Amino acid sequence: MLEAKNITKTFHSEGLDTYALTGVDLAVESGEFVSIVGRSGSGKTTFLNVLSTLLLPDSGEILYKGEDVTSMTASRLNELRQKDFAVVFQFHYLLPYLSALENVLLPYMKGVAPVSKEARLRAEQCLERVGLADKGAKLPGHLSGGEQQRVAIARALVKESSVLFADEPTGNLDKGTGESIMNLLADLKNEGLSIVMVTHDNEYAAMADRLVSMADGKVV
Ligand SMILES: Nc1ncnc2c1ncn2[C@@H]1O[C@H](COP(=O)(O)OP(=O)(O)O)[C@@H](O)[C@H]1O
Ligand SMILES: [Mg+2]
Fold first, then answer.
1. Using a 6 Å cutoff on CB, does residue 44 contact ligand 1?
2. Where in this chain does the entry annotate a coiled-coil region (predicted)?
3. How far apart are CA 121 and CA 126, in angstroms?
4. Is ligand 1 within 6 A of the CB of residue 194?
C-alpha cells in the first residue's frame, strides 16, 4: 500500500551537510503495523516525515497505492493529508485554549464556518474510542499526559484515515501510560488501520507486526 524506494535526504545547515537518509527502502502492507527503531540521529524522524509527506526527499519515490507522492499536485497532496494520512507526534500539539473535543474537531474547522452536527458526533465517537467520553469539555492543561496523547490520537482518527504515522508517541509518558497508548494502537491496528511508528522502546516496538531497524540513514 505504501512504498518508499531509495529515499535520500541531506540537510544543509551552517555550512554542514548531514546525510540523514542515504537510500531507504520500505514497503508497508495494508493493515500492517510496522515499528521503526534505531539510535538517536539514525534518521527515523526524517524518514517518517518523508513517508507522511511532511518533508520532501531529495531523491527517491514514495508510492501510496501506486501513486507517487513526491510528484503529486498540491491539491492532490492536500487531499491525501486531509483524508488518508494522520500523524501523531511525541508532543501532542493540542491547542491549549480549545477543549479536548474542539481539538479533535480541528480537522473539520475551516475559517469561521461552524462545524456540522455529523462532525461533532464523529469527534465525540473518537473521544469515546480512546476512552475519554467524559473528558471532552476539559482543556488539555487539565488532562494527564496520557490523556493528552489520547486526544491527539482521537484527532488523528477523526478523518477515518488509512495510515497513522506516530513519532515516539509514548516518548513523553511514564511506563504504565505508555503501555495503555500502545494497547490502543494495537486495537486500532486490529480494526484495520495501518500504522508506522517510530520508537526507541524495544518492548513497544515488538508489539508491531514487523520491526525495521535504522542506522546511519539506512534500513539495516
Ligand atoms: N532540519 C534539520 N536540519 C539539519 N539537520 C537535521 C534536521 N533534521 C534532522 N537533522 C539531522 O539529521 C539526522 C537524522 O535526524 P532524525 O531523523 O531526527 O533522527 P532520529 O529521529 O533517528 O533521532 C541527525 O543527524 C539530525 O541532527
Ligand atoms: Mg526522532
1. yes
2. none
3. 9
4. no
